[in-house]
Amino acid sequence: MDPKHRNAAALHKRADDLIRLFLQNYQSILQRIGPSSTSITSNNDTNNNNNDEDSSKVRQGQGEETQRQTPYSEIAYRELSIKEDTMNIIKAAQSSSTLIRDLQELWLFGSLDTVADPADLIEEREMAIQIADVIAGLARRGPSFFSD
After folding, report:
1. What whole-number distance in Å separates Cα of residue 27 and Cα of residue 2?
2. Where are the domains of the chain?
3. SS3 48
4. 20 SS3 class
5. How far apart are the C-alpha atoms of 32 and 75, rounded to whole Å?
6. Which contacts (CB < 8 Å, 24+ apart) does range 52-59 have?
7. The whole model's pTM is what?
8. CA-to-CA distance for 79 and 73, rounded, in angstroms?
9. Which end of the chain is more exposed for a tag (fewer CB within 10 A), N or C?
10. In what ranges is there compositional bias, type Low complexity (predicted)?
11. Among the residues of the chain, which ranges form H helices?
12. What's the pLDDT score for residue 36?
């Protein structure tokens, strides 16, 4: 994992992006499964308001060539769109699996600090200052202290 992506903000963004990708593709599939927003009969009704015989012929099954052409192409388009969205969901699932594996590695090797407490950081700094003071005191005494 890239070291610049090991911070909490980058991990949260990565998880949020995956969630957004899941939702967008799932919603897209549901929209494509729903009823068609355009149909032949409604197009004929709006285009031929004065000619009711033509629209009734289309409704009764006459003019089948025109009816089959649009729905089949629309069905093919929907099918391909659903397949594409499904593949995007599969890719997002694979990416989430990779994210989980990366988090496990970070936790296992100690780079992911899950139990950090701000009070612990303050204590560590105080201890580091005390150790630095002891080292500075020893350095001031010089080498004669070590020869005894």
Report:
1. 32
2. 3-115, 117-148
3. coil
4. helix
5. 10
6. none
7. 0.52
8. 10
9. C
10. 36-50
11. 8-33, 40-47, 52-59, 64-108, 118-141, 144-147
12. 57
